[in-house]
Design a protein that fits this description.
The protein is mainly β. It contains no helices and 46 strands.
């Protein structure tokens, strides 16, 4: 491999993959995060953590720091923040040290970090905390009104939920009270309705504070795209012979209602999130997937031979004709007919690329690479291993260490080919794909490119 150039840029940490115009959704597996499209195909991957795409950008974490990527995977704002929110109204909140501020889409700091808490912008305003009180600021950082509430949300449909003396109500964007503080909890307005809690139960109120859906649920989220996720707790009670309760177990059961309060998805889910771009994340029996507005499971969360890793393990899609499945804590792979071709015996199993997939037989064990029959083509010998891409895979062994210029002992990574032979020696703290044909490697905080 030929060294092309060397310079200190965090940009090289992220892969610039082909652009995807369809909606992308963050998913996680094995402590790494990526994005899938509506079919479950992995579009972008390899991040330590990630947030939703908004206004063309998504926050991602690499090397312990947060930055922003575009839908192609190209880094638009380099990772340099301790935390980051999503973009809204052209602004994203970022944390430097213990203080929050705001940047624009070029990465320029618009509001210097000085707040103890900060919300995402909505309708041109954000809720911020200075000392022990909350107020609103505008997109340039100017105060809309001085901090005066115990808690405060950003405005939604011209209303912001506030808490005073332990009760919740709503103010307008000028800070005037429009619904008196009377609720035990309150959420955001959407489609003219907001979730609110009275006593132990949630319902939905209109902009005047009147109940539209009476409080009868144990939990509720704000409406999104016309539906709201609601929850009632199912309780299993065990009594002794005298009738005394000796054990009670609570199971949340989620579903969806429409704006009339009619249940459009029965309360049978373990959990449910809000709709976005026509899909809502749901959990059923400990596994994860998405439903559409018909209530149909678009990405099936149950153990299935036809969905990669059952989606419940935060992966998705067929790779080289194989899809990973999970039964209990073990993983294998099936072909398109549903036939198990890689035995379900692995503690961890990566995606098949070039006929090989990283695999580990037991927790804490070594990684190797298995072929499409489940046999090890490259014997287990690595402490960490990644999927093959463009004919190479990144691997790490515990004994591959070096003391960097700061005096810290850091692990080193290498590249291997499909025969298991080292193509790029273990001399770099991290290795990432920058383009389909270019590799970025880091040492002592500097990055170089290899072809």
């Amino acid at each position: 491999m030929n060294l092309i150039r060397l310079f200190p840029a965090c940009l090289a940490m992220l892969a610039a993959l082909p652009a995807f115009s369809a909606p992308l959704f963050p998913v996680s597996e094995d402590y790494r995060t990526g994005f899938i499209d509506k079919t479950g195909r992995i579009a972008l991957s390899g991040y330590e953590d990630a947030g939703d795409f908004s206004e063309g950008l998504a926050p991602v974490r690499l090397g312990g720091w947060w930055g922003f990527i575009g839908s192609s995977g190209k880094v638009e704002i380099p990772p340099r923040y301790a935390q980051a929110g999503v973009f809204s109204s052209g602004r994203a909140r970022v944390r430097a040290g213990s203080a929050w501020g705001y940047i624009d889409k070029t990465g320029t700091l618009i509001v210097a970090p000085r707040y103890l808490e900060a919300s995402d912008f909505r309708e041109g305003c954000a809720a911020v905390r200075a000392a022990d009180r909350f107020g609103l600021i505008d997109a340039q950082g100017a105060a809309v009104f001085a901090p005066k509430f115990e808690r405060l949300s950003a405005p939604s449909e011209g209303r912001a939920a506030f808490r005073q003396d332990g009760k919740w109500g709503f103010i307008d964007k000028a800070g005037a009270v429009v619904v008196a503080a009377q609720f035990d909890a309150a959420g955001d307005f959407s489609g003219g309705l907001a979730p609110a809690k009275k006593g132990a139960k949630f319902g939905f109120i209109d902009a005047a504070g009147r109940w539209v859906v009476e409080p009868k649920y144990d939990g509720a989220l704000a409406f999104s795209e016309g539906w709201a996720a609601v929850m009632n707790a199912k309780r299993d009670v065990i009594k002794d012979q005298s009738g005394r309760v000796v054990k009670m177990t609570t199971f949340p059961k989620w579903g969806f209602i429409d704006r009339t309060g009619a249940e459009v998805v029965p309360l049978e889910l373990t959990h449910a999130g809000p709709f976005a771009q026509g899909l809502a994340p749901v959990w059923r029996d400990g596994r994860f997937g998405y439903i559409d507005k018909t209530g149909r499971m678009l990405l099936e969360p149950l153990v299935s031979a036809r969905v990669g890793d059952s989606i419940g393990d935060r992966a998705g899609g067929f790779h080289a004709g194989l899809a990973r499945v999970a039964i209990g804590l073990r993983r294998g792979a099936v072909d398109a007919s549903g036939k198990v071709v890689v035995p379900v015996k692995f503690d961890r199993l990566g995606a098949f690329n070039g006929g090989l997939a990283p695999a580990r037989l037991q927790d804490g064990g070594l990684w190797g690479y298995v072929d499409a029959t489940g046999n090890f083509a490259i014997a287990p010998q690595f402490d960490e291993a990644t999927d093959f891409y463009e004919g190479f895979a990144r691997v790490h062994k515990t004994e591959w260490t070096v003391q960097n210029k700061l005096g810290s002992v850091v692990g080193l990574w290498a590249l291997i080919d499909p025969k298991g032979e080292v193509s790029l020696k273990p001399a770099y703290e991290s290795i990432a794909w920058y383009t389909d044909r270019t590799i970025a490697a880091q040492l002592d905080g500097k990055y170089g490119f290899f072809d």
